[in-house]
Each structure stands twice: as C-alpha cells, then as structure tokens.
C-alpha cells in the first residue's frame, strides 16, 4: 500500500509482492459530530439516492428465531 500526498489524500494500492507483518497496531481517527450540521442551500444531490438504489438488495421476509445448543 502506498499513501498519497497530503494534498490528494489518496491511498494507492501499489502491490509490492512482498509479505508484510503488522504487530501491535492501532488506528486513531478524528471524527466530527454531525449534531450541529445545517443543510446547505440548493437542491439535493442525486448521487446518494442513485447509489442506494443500485447497491440495495431486498431479501424476502423469513420467520424470526434461532436455536441455542447446550454447552457440551
């Protein structure tokens, strides 16, 4: 994996064909709460709706339930 520049913030999948080992890794991400977000002027973007309709699958309803097996 290659991490791009600060300007582009891209992650490029550049295969090296070498085995890597990662130990004791941690990942910290700064997140922003959307609680104080306000809508902007203008029309809604068509992308989220189109993306959801293309990438959503409807599954048939089935009876709810599960089996619990005793510990042996």
Your description of this structure?
- The termini are far apart.
- This protein has one helix at 47-54, and strands at 2-3, 11-12.
- The model has no long low-confidence stretch (mean pLDDT 76).
- The protein has one helix and two strands; from the N terminus they run ββα.
- By secondary structure, the chain is largely without helices or strands.
- The chain is extended.
- A two-stranded antiparallel ribbon has the order 1-2.
Layout of helices and strands:
Elements: E1 2-3, E2 11-12, H1 47-54
What tags apply to this protein structure?
little secondary structure; single chain; 72 residues; extended; 1 helix
Structural class: little secondary structure
Distance N to C terminus: 45 Å
Beta-strand fraction estimate: 5-15%
Low-confidence stretches: none
Bin the helical content.
10-25%
Written as H for each helix and E for each strand, in order along the chain, the element string is: EEH
Q: State Rg.
A: 22 Å
Mean of the pLDDT scores?
A: 76
How is the main sheet built?
A: 2 strands, antiparallel
Shape: extended
Number of strands: 2
